[in-house]
Amino acid sequence: MSVIEIFETKRRNTALRVNGFEYRRHRPLTNGNLSWRCLKVSCSATLKTDSEMTKIIERAGSHNHKSQNTVLSDDNANSPVSCNVSLDEDTTTTPLKMSSLELRDEGVITPQNTALSDNNANSPISFDVSLVVDTTDTTSKMPSLGLRDMGVNTPTIRTIRPNDETQSIREVELLQQRDDLIAYSRDLNNEIDQLKAVTQSQSDELNEMIRALQDENRVLSERVALMSTSIEALEADNQTLRNEKIVDANEIDKWRASHDELFIKLTTFSNDRSESSGPKSGRRKDNKSPRMRPKLPDNRCEALDVAAVECESDSLPPNITVHHYADSQGRNVAREFMKKCNLNFTSFVKPGAKFRDVVPDRLADFGSKDVLVGIQAGSNDVSKNEAKDVLTALRRSLRIYTELMS
Q: According to the lineage, what is the superkingdom (predicted)?
C-alpha cells in the first residue's frame, strides 16, 4: 500500500510524496479529482488522487530517475503529517507500532539533521496527528485525536520534506531567467542613466547657446535702436539741408536774375526836339558790328543811341534777335522777358507812345539779319500791372511768327 505524504514546496505550494517520488499539483479534473505530476521537469510520471488527497486513483507513466532521498529539515518541523499509528496497551513502551506506515531504509538520519536549535529546544511543539490505538481487550479502533502540547515526554513526529539543495530543473531555469532579467534591467538602467547624462549635457549646451543668442540679439536690438535714432536724425538733417538748398537755389535764382537783368537806358527827348527831328529822325539803332561794341560787366546793356538800347548775352545764338517796341511802360515787360527768354533782345522805348505811334515808327528799323520782331501795343493802352500777361502774349506772337517764317 502506497503512503501519501503531503508537504509544501518553497513556493508554498501543496505537493505529495509517494514511495519517495515527489509530485506537484498539475490541474483539477472535471470530476473533482486532482491530477499530479512529478516534480522533475524531465519526468512525465503522473498520478490522480481524490479531492481529499487520501487515495491514489490512477498512475500513469514511469519515472526516469531515482526517488528523492528524504531528509528531515528543521524548516519543516512544524508542518503536520497525516498517518495511521497503532499503539500498544502500554503507551509508555517503545517502539510505537505503526500499522499503516510503510518504513523505508533510506539512510540513517544523523542527530545533526534531527536536533533542534538551542533556542527552540525547550519550547513545546504543536502538532496534529491521527492515531489508531490497538488494545488487547477490544478490536475497535479509537477515533482520531488531535493532540497539542503533550509535554516533554511525548514523542514527536516531524514532517519529512525534500532536501533544500535539491531543486527542480524548472526552478533552476526560472532562477536563471530571473537573474538574466535582473542583469538586463541593470544594463538598461545604466544605458538610461548614460542617455540622461548625454541629454542633460546637450540640453545645457543648447541652453547656453540660447542664452548667448539672446544676449547677441539684445545687443543687436540696442544697436538697431541707436541706428534708428541716427537714421531719424540724419533724415531730419537731410530734410533741413534740402530746405536750405531750395532756399539757396531760390536766392541764387534771384541773384542771377538781378545780375542778368538787362538794364535799359532810356533817353527822354523833349517834345520840341521830337517835333523838329521828324518822325524818322533820332532814336536809331547803332549798326556797329557786335564785335566792335564794348561789353559791359555782368552782361549789362550798352547804350546804342539816345532812343534804343540793345542787350545781348554771350551764351545766346548771335543770329537771333528780338525787337521789342513799346512806350515807357514797356520796360517792365522787357525785364520779365530778359529773365525768362534766352534770346538776343533789343528794346525800343518811346515814352508816351501808343500803338498807332509805335507800329509805323519802328518797322523801318527791322533789318535783314533779324529773325523775330515783337511789337507791343502802346503801354499806355495796357496797365502796368499786366506786364506778365503782355509777355505771354508776346511769346505767343513770336512763336506764331517763327512758324510762319519757317
A: Eukaryota
